[in-house]
């Protein structure tokens, strides 16, 4: 196996090399490792961008990891080294031996590797893409309609390694494929969102410190296993969203840092290139080749694995040059401001290129500041994302629910404040993994008040969330009211389902998703102020809220929330229709089922600015949902 470029001509065309240097992400595929045939010979074609290296050699299982055996050819115009080696097979491990500009020999994993070995191993692995097969054409064809802002989107967030994996029962992707799609479907979720599954050296980072931006993490199985999982989700009618991290990367020796003996992927100045919170390196998005690699990664997951969307992590850290930095520890932009202009351009190119695909794939921003226009089109000055996580709503409402119910009257605005900006962006309401780790406690344990009433409060809060404007996201374990906060080394506390109260929370989530799908008034106008109107927003003394959700051509849904354990019999609420109203959901009932299904007649007595009114018996710590129509309409 001594052959190489000596027997073969240039592997990459000059036009592709020029496009790569210009930042065209489509040209990155020309550098990607692939098993291919050249002049009738089967082998591995690979390339790597290392413009400042003195030399680069291909090393691996096929040459006893000897850097003298297969030196690579430099294409000077682009700083790209290339090689074709006959006889390499799928599953062979390899790296690049890079003699840097500083004279140091570094053994680097392939930044474009499609497969890696599992940690603590750090080698890239030759991937045979022919092993992937798909049968989800109809699903992909209908994606754009399903993910339109006027459709219900309810997301179940999952960490692949700790949902329900059992040692010895097959690889995690196989286990997840057998159970997770059916579980999410049964509870009515439209999507699962996976914490980053791109290869990452440290499991404790949960995937948010990735190095292999094109490789499914080997700790969870093979690329074929991940593709099979996505196919199983689609077959069950469940979309797949991946968390994706273009903001920073870990400084492991086999990774991107000082790749060719110089700061290549990262900024040279630590005021730009080192992240003080995460002790990681920050991508230099001012370099065309770096930007192209990241964009190519985003499209690779959409193309190769048919995923339905990307949730972009840590967008706020990308937008501000002074993010988490003290005065004097950051470099202003060329105009003297704090905005990161290169990141803004990158994010706009990302969202624009995903939208230009025309296949309905969506982008979601985790952006925690008040940056304007995150979901506004780039052509109108925005960033162009389809949705933005509403971190302010999450913070304010959880802060309210943490309080003892007797004190909530003094903080009434915490729950209502989100409605002041609810329609400024297309939002996702996130009860995510970040809120149930590092001593923050689980959702159930956050609820204030008497311990034996916490599940009542949680059910009322979840019901409030599901009828509040915005798409929904719930992290695993929240749907069964897990008491223990999330631990990535332990699975969800499934045995809680042996207890009726916890199973009741799970059934409630399923019922909420059902109503959310069935009732267009709960989802069709999520980003339109006309779809929401307050009925009772000022009853701080009783901690009661009431509001209507509506959509053109559809019956409204009235939500009435009582956030104290004190019942309020005979509570009068304004109503928009003078008909019988049907009780759809009582969060205090088993799984949200009203304890006594019944019709409630509207009276011709105005209240709260509405022409009619309803008299309700409000249970303590509960949310009621009502809609015009009688039980006979079923």
From TrEMBL:
Which Gene3D superfamilies does this entry report, sorted A to Z?
Answer: Glycosidases, Golgi alpha-mannosidase II, Immunoglobulins
Tell me the keywords, alphabetical order: Carbohydrate metabolism, Glycogen biosynthesis, Glycogen metabolism, Glycosyltransferase, Transferase
Please give one Pfam family short name. CBM_48
Superkingdom, according to UniProt?
A: Bacteria
**Known EC number(s)?**
2.4.1.18
User: Is Glycosyltransferase a UniProt keyword of this protein?
Assistant: yes
NCBIfam families for this protein: branching_enzym, PRK05402.1, PRK12313.1
Q: Please give the subunit comment from the record.
A: Monomer.
> What is the protein name stated in its UniProt record?
1,4-alpha-glucan branching enzyme GlgB
Upper classification of the source organism reads: Bacteria, Pseudomonadati, Pseudomonadota, Betaproteobacteria, Burkholderiales
